[in-house]
Design brief:
Elements: H1 10-18, H2 23-31, H3 37-43, H4 49-61, E1 65-69, E2 75-79, H5 81-84, H6 87-100, H7 112-120, E3 133-139, E4 148-154, E5 157-161, E6 171-175, H8 177-185, H9 190-195, E7 199-202, H10 205-213
Length: 230
């Protein structure tokens, strides 16, 4: 018998493809709009490039992903109808995880690279002026080189930089990684983190308000966690 479950059940056949380690997270990134290999890698920073290539090839072979040549070289990846049909499955998995998984988030789970990548693609930039805005995040509990991140917001697009881009900073955000993760997940309200001083944002008032108004949290932030019964 091969690597499958050896069952005709559709749940088993689907799990052989979709439940392979890392595959749900690769699907999450594709469903979030990542199309290029390097963008996909930024959504799964702890996954090796070779393993990501293997998973993408498997998804392509199974008809969930289509690969095409990109302008300037490389490839782009697009979900097929079969891949897009997994959207409610992945969303339901995230909803279940937020509501029912009782294990607390540990230090090993925290990842500023992933957090900033998630955060940058959820920003509503129409709340900010049309000119370029540079936001520097400082994770106060992290050592270099994962202490500082820069968000460049310009022309309706947001980019994450791991190095200082070298022009004037408009907003400064200082927060610990656990607190910002809790805010992102909806476990700590943003206004509470600001009121207690755990999250400090400095800069012109109009820019502060525009950035905070446009900061959309995780799609699962509104899911209430089920508490263990006494």
């Amino acid at each position: 018998m091969g690597k499958g479950y050896g069952q005709f059940c559709p749940v088993a056949k689907a799990a052989e493809i979709v439940a392979e380690r890392w595959t749900p997270l690769v699907m999450r990134e594709l469903l979030c709009g990542s199309r290029h290999f390097n963008d996909l890698r930024r959504g799964v920073p702890r996954m090796s490039p070779s393993l990501l290539s293997q998973r993408l090839k498997r998804l392509e072979d199974e008809g969930l992903v289509a690969r095409s040549a990109a302008d300037g070289g490389g490839s782009t990846y697009h979900l097929t109808d079969a891949g897009e049909a997994l959207r409610p499955v992945i969303e339901a998995l995230g909803t279940w995880g937020k509501r029912w998984v009782r294990r607390t988030t540990t230090a090993e789970d925290l990842d500023p690279d992933l957090l900033m990548w998630d955060l940058h693609r959820r920003l509503h930039l129409d709340r900010l002026p049309p000119r370029r805005t540079l936001v520097r995040f400082e994770f106060t509990d992290m050592p270099a080189p994962r202490r500082f991140y820069w968000l460049i917001l310009e022309a309706g697009q947001a980019d994450v930089c791991l190095k200082d881009p070298g022009f004037g900073i408009d907003l400064y955000v200082a927060v610990s990684l656990p607190v910002m993760t809790a805010v992102w997940l909806g476990d700590t309200p943003l206004d509470v983190a600001r009121r207690t001083g755990e999250l400090d944002i400095r800069g012109p008032g109009e820019l502060r308000r525009g950035f905070l108004d446009g900061l959309r949290l995780s799609p699962f932030a509104g899911i209430e966690r089920e508490r263990p019964s006494d």
